[in-house]
Amino acid sequence: MIKNITALTQRELVSSFFSPVAYVTTTLFLVFTGVFFLRNTLVAGSEASMRPFLDNMAWILVVAMPLLTMRVLSDEFASGTIETLMTAPVTDVEVVLSKFLGVLVFYTVLLLTTVVHVALLFAYGGAELGVVLYGYVGMLLLGALYVSVGVFASALTKYQLVAAFIAMAVLAAFTMLVDWIARTLGGPWRTILGFVNILRHFDDFSKGIFDTRAVIFFLSATAFFLFLAVKVLESRRWR
Hints:
By secondary structure, this protein is mostly helical. It is built from twelve helices and no strands.
């Protein structure tokens, strides 16, 4: 199993690094994170903090991650290469996990490019190492969840843009929509909906707080969407 996943992950990673959409998305991601860093973090006369930078990245990824993941399975369906995968000695779990890991590695590399902002913050703002480390752990967990949602959306259709819109809709529902409903209804709904609000769980990490409940949420939610992607892929074998 590990051998198959490793080989398929390498294949997916190569595809990601040769994808024009991935480079366009990466460029836009770096431009926007750079702008937000200069406007909201390194502000003359203000206390420098990583929190606004991390929060802005989390919002940017709601759009960026679906663009990075939209092709992982949709392209296989559109090109017909999914038939080769389904007849190969690999399981649906291995296919989904390899797609997930391939994009996650690419995302990790993308995240590492923002370390230059951290270096500037340490040089001019005196940031705390613990806060930065917890923040980036949160970004990895958040990214893993976003990738799993994108893989699930890509398993639903052979049209890449449709997959991207589905993933964006799901992520928007669990970030903006639940927050709006919670604020509108108030009372116990604020607490109840807070349990499924992705960015509320990420908020602790951006503050430099390590919360095991948030870790469990991200890991279980990631596993749930990967499970859904496997089930969707399995259902295609019977069509």
